[in-house]
Amino acid sequence: MTARRPEKVSTSYLHVAPPGVVETRDFGHARRVDFPERFTNLDDARRLYGDRVDRLGSFLTRVDPLADDVVASLETIPRGWQLFERAASHGIASVPSAPESLRELFDAVGRVPLWVDWETVDRGGEVLMRAGPLGGLVLAYRSLVLGYASPAGNKPLVLSGRLEQQATRRINETARFVQATITPGAMRPHGEAWQITLKVRLIHAHVRRMIRRQPGLWNDAWGAPINQHDQAGTSLLFSVAVLDGLRELGVRVSRSDAEAYMHLWRWSGWLMGIDPELLPATEAEGMRLGHLIHATEGPPDDDSRRLTRALLEAPLRVAKTPRERANALRAVQFGAAMCRALLPEEMADQLAVPRTPWRYVVPLVRQLVSSMERVRAHVPLCDAPAMWAGTRYWSRVVAEGLADGGATFGLPRGLAHAA
Predict the structure, then answer these.
(1) Cα–Cα distance for residue pair 282/301, rounded to 1 Å
(2) Measuring CA to CA, which residue among 375, 139, 120 is closest to residue 244?
């Protein structure tokens, strides 16, 4: 995301304070706020965004108590996860013995906010469904990689699984999650995507619980494990980052379609337990939040580079025959080229994304997509074939991912880096 002009600074003003400590004076009352060390570049960020920086920083230590309580309760109940799955698919009334924490969760997610409009939710899904393979490219080589680039936000992922072996599974789970989310009707209560979103929410809480149980494993300088700040950032990777990436590849996304797409992911984020303050209602709000997060984030670290390399080289790990390996090598080179096209040049360098001859193909892809989009703009009937092709694409991707048992959305059994 490119920098925008500075926003107007609020009336709160800042004093010099020790590193990691913010001292603000608001309406004549001084207060001190401790932020995790990962929250960087604060002086420069405040000059651009004023006291929004300090308001954002408070979310680095906030998590999801509702989901945390459910996970703690399910651990004490035989077949607790199965009880949760039954409640998700058939309603909490189908589980008479449900613990109070589980009832509270389903009571909360069962009250759909007034701003949710089902027609707009479904129309938002159509934006990505129409994009077909282009959406898959953007999600893999822009959204996932931008998530890896966060030097603290990537730590739960690093701790929860072996990087190389889990790369393919992460791709499959992401594809399954997205395919369900953009399917018409699936985000309604007890729909398939609605259930998957709640499963992911509890998986986050479970990983957070496992991390906290291992003394010395987590560094408080990273904030809380899978905190509100990082979950909001992840939501932006599926919303604003995707819209930006599609346009980069030549896809035309109207303002109306963009807002519908944002509406879909706002609802998804709400189900995921993200604080409503961090759920942008419009693309412009999402971009402002994204710029703010980027302004207070450090550069990619070694884990960022390892995760990116594992993603790019994933095709090689599933290739079995010489022919499959040759195709995989081409896929790796093409993936690196797409990564370079969809990320800022400096970030691609920091992530050690290789430069390959396939980078010369990307401009041709843009030209082809732009030409097709011009035709689609003047021939509305082209939307139907695009939707059909996109639906077929996502179904095939998910079917191939599920072939090896991936994307089951079950609770992980342990941490790869447990002490």
Answers:
(1) 31
(2) 139
Supply the pLDDT for residue 39.
Answer: 97
**Which of 55, 68, 233, 74 lies closest to 157, judged by CA?**
233
Q: How many CB atoms lie within 10 A of CB 406?
A: 19
- Model confidence over 66-105: pLDDT tens digits? 999 999 999 999 999 999 999 999 999 999 999 999 999 9
- Quote the crossing angle between the two packed helices 80-90 and 192-213, to the nearest 10°: 150
Tokens of 186: 């699936």
pLDDT at 1 > cutoff 80: no
Two tokens, residue 157: 């992922």
CB 120 within 8 A of CB 114: no
Cα end-to-end distance, the chain, whole Å = 37
Instruction: Collect all residues with Cβ–Cβ distance below 8 Å to 258 and sequence separation of at least 6.
Output: 127, 243, 283
Number of residues written out for the chain: 419
Cβ-based burial of 187 (10 A; exposed 0-12, middle 13-18, buried ≥19)? buried
The neighbouring-strand residues paired with 29 are: 26
Q: Is the pTM here over 0.70, yes or no?
A: yes
The kind and range of the H/E element at 25 are strand 21-26
Contact 297, 154 (CB under 8 A): no
